[in-house]
Design a protein that fits this description.
Strand content: 15-25%
Helix content: 25-40%
Strand order of the largest sheet: 1-4-3-2-5-6
Mean pLDDT: 97
Low-confidence stretches: none
Number of strands: 9
Largest sheet: 6 strands, parallel
Number of helices: 9
Bound molecules: adenosine monophosphate
C-alpha cells in the first residue's frame, strides 16, 4: 500500500492506472476507521482492480459549533488496518493541499441539502459536495462507495454526479451495525457506557416503525409519532428529528405507498447520532 499526500501525485497515479485499463474504486473517509469503513473497502475491492481510500477530516463540512478539532483521529492505526486489507493507495492530503490559499469555490446542492440534517448542520452538505467533487477530480475513480448510514449524504452525491456529469458509478453500502443494533460510527467513542446503552433507542425505534408498517400502518404521522415516543422513553435521548420521506427526493410523505425512508437524528448527551431504515409497505 502506498501512502500519497500530494494531489498531483495522486492524480498521476490514477492516470497511469487508467491508461493501463484498470478500474479504480474510491472509498472516501474521515479516518478513525472501524468495521463499517472496512466493509466499504471490501465492497470496493470486489468492484474494481485498484482501491483508493481517502482519509481527510474535511474542515468545510463541520458547522462552527461542531467537533472538527475534537474529531477522533488515529492515523497509525488507520494505516495498519488498511495495510491488512491490502488496498492500493491511502490518499491522505493536508487541508492546505485540498484548500490552498485563495480557494473560494463551493459546490452547493439546492433542495436536497435543505432537508433532514441540514437545518441542524449549516453548511455541512455544501462542504461534503465540495470535497467529494474535488476527490472525484483528483482520484478519477470509476466507482465510489458510500454508506447508507449517511443516507442524505449519499443522495446529495448521487445528485452531484448526475447534475455535474461525473462519469462515476455511485454505490450505496448497507448500514453496518454492532451485534446489538447500534449503527457503527466514529462518533460512538464519545459515548459513556451509560450513553452507549441509551443509544440503542435509535435502532429500536426504527424497528418499531418497521413493525407498524408490516402490520399495515401507512400513515406517516402515526408512525413518526410512535417512533418519537419510543426514543423519548430513553431519558438520555433528545430527538432532533424523526422523518418519513421519499427515499430519493427526501421530501416528507404523508402516506407510505412505496418504499420510504424513516430517518432520525438524536442527541445522546452531547453526541449527535443518526440512523435510518427503508420501510416497504405490505403487498
Ligand atoms: P466517515 O468517515 O464517517 O465520513 O464515513 C466514511 C464512509 O463510511 C461514509 O460513506 C459513511 O456513510 C460510511 N459509514 C460510516 N459508518 C457506516 C455504517 N455504520 N454503515 C455503513 N456505512 C458507514
Amino acid at each position: 500500500m502506498q501512502v500519497i499526500e500530494r494531489v498531483q501525485d495522486m492524480s498521476r497515479w490514477s492516470e497511469v492506472q487508467r491508461r493501463d485499463g484498470r478500474r479504480i474504486a474510491l472509498v472516501p473517509t474521515m479516518g478513525f476507521l472501524h468495521e463499517a469503513h472496512l466493509c466499504l473497502v471490501r465492497d470496493g475491492k470486489k468492484r474494481a482492480d485498484r482501491v483508493v481510500v481517502s482519509l481527510f477530516v474535511n474542515p468545510k463540512q463541520f458547522a462552527p459549533n461542531e467537533d472538527f478539532a475534537a474529531y477522533p483521529r488515529d492515523f497509525g492505526r488507520d494505516r495498519e488496518l488498511l495495510e491488512r486489507e491490502s488496498i492500493d493507495v491511502l490518499f491522505h492530503p493536508s487541508a492546505d493541499e485540498i484548500y490552498p490559499a485563495g480557494f473560494q469555490t463551493q459546490v452547493s446542492i439546492d433542495k436536497l441539502s435543505r432537508l433532514l440534517c441540514a437545518p441542524y448542520r449549516p453548511g455541512h452538505f455544501q462542504g461534503v459536495a465540495t470535497v467529494v467533487a474535488k476527490l472525484f477530480n483528483i482520484v478519477r475513480p470509476h466507482v465510489a462507495i458510500f454508506g447508507e448510514k449517511d443516507y442524505q449524504q449519499l443522495q446529495v452525491i448521487r445528485r452531484l454526479v448526475r447534475d455535474l456529469n461525473f462519469d462515476i458509478e455511485i454505490v450505496g453500502h448497507p448500514i453496518v451495525r454492532e451485534a446489538d443494533g447500534l449503527a457503527i460510527s466514529s462518533r460512538n467513542v464519545y459515548l459513556s457506557p451509560e450513553e452507549r446503552q441509551a443509544a440503542l433507542c435509535l435502532s429500536r425505534s426504527l424497528s418499531r416503525g418497521a413493525c407498524m408498517v408490516k402490520r399495515g400502518e401507512t400513515q406517516a404521522r402515526v408512525i413518526s409519532e410512535a417512533v418519537r415516543a419510543e426514543i423519548e422513553k430513553e431519558p438520555l435521548a433528545k430527538v432532533e428529528y424523526v422523518t418519513l420521506c421519499d427515499s430519493a427526493t427526501l421530501e416528507t410523505v404523508e402516506k407510505i405507498q412505496q418504499a420510504a425512508l424513516l430517518a432520525l437524528a438524536v442527541r445522546i448527551g452531547k453526541t449527535r447520532l443518526i440512523d435510518n431504515r427503508i420501510l416497504k409497505p405490505i403487498g
